[in-house]
Amino acid sequence: MTARDLWLIRHGETEWSALGQHTSWTELELTEEGVREVLAVKPLLRGRNFSLVLSSPRSRAVRTAELAGFEPTIDEDLKEWDYGALEGMTIEEIRKQYPGWSIWGGPWPGGEHPDDVAARADRVIERALAVAGPEPVLLFAHGHILRALGARWLRRPPTDGYLLKLGTATVSILGWEHGEPVVSNWNVPADTGQLG
Known about the structure:
The protein is α/β, with parallel strands linked by helices and 196 residues long. It has a single domain, classed as Phosphoglycerate mutase-like (Rossmann fold), CATH 3.40.50.1240. Helices cover 32% and strands 17% of the residues. The protein contains 6 helices and 6 strands. Strands 3-2-4-1-5-6 form a 6-stranded mixed β-sheet. Helix 5 (114-130) packs across helix 6 (143-153). The two termini are 25 Å apart.
């Protein structure tokens, strides 16, 4: 396997993400603001070569990739964490039923356990590192799966993703230092104009 970087892009804003509603399998379009966010990210990606471009199958992620100028290969493992019965609910609504709840600690009624999310993230990482070519791999997906993937990159439990806040239409880079996986950039908004 090649020690290549992974570039992560969270999809642009949707109506539910703007309201803090948990969105897994529900198909939602990007808002006008979400489209503006993604178009602002496009210059950060322009002129860069990628060995592979993958996207969640959800339309908001695919649309983000397309607006950014890419035709991604769909990877089912990049789907958002399945929230089960909590789909569409805000954290405040969920905590009325489950005081102190977070996606990282559960419960997950009818949804995905962190071990299942970790297995998906591990497969994405394995696929990315196995592809031919020296260039980085570009991933378009969702907040919680990308946070879990970041934790797994660092060889941590997926629940350590709680440490990695991730806004819509931001760029993150998982890289290497002295042969060890590191976070090179995280949650970089387009208005910074650069990646360091």
